[in-house]
Amino acid sequence: MAKLPILEFPDERLRTIATPVEAVDDEVRQLVDDMLETMYDARGIGLAATQVDVHRRVIVMDVSDDQSRPLVMINPEFTPIGDEREPMQEGCLSIPEYYAEVPRALKVHLKALGRDGQPYEMEAEGLLAHCIQHEYDHLEGVLFVDYLSVLKRDRVMKKMQKRHRQMQPA
Fold first, then answer.
1. What catalytic activity is recorded (predicted)?
2. How far is CA 76 from CA 12, 17, 126, in A?
């Protein structure tokens, strides 16, 4: 396995819409394994392939407290269950050190392929439902800051640009 570099906002590659995976083969399984290693190493709970500059419809996630329940979603699709929405504070590995409340569907129905290429369906609620929607947005080129006011989004962009300047060698 290999740890992958994570793109950071405002990198335009984060706006790329991911393409479907045609076949779950060894290359896709290796991507999944590398993404899980990257996500765990970065102490995240979800990661979309777009965030590691691979523009395919692949998401990995683990919302368990002990990192014991990895979830793989290849070509995911979800539909909200009911109209109930709930704001929850979100962060993002592509926007480190920034958090904001984003309202999302409280429950969702998910259809996806697993790491083995087999289709599965599940219902999710709470943190898992929020995370599915957040990571799915990445596959569509959408970031959680897009749900904020223009003023707040601009403030985050300036903060991230400053962060990138400070990280550049002198």
1. N-terminal N-formyl-L-methionyl-[peptide] + H2O = N-terminal L-methionyl-[peptide] + formate
2. 23, 14, 18
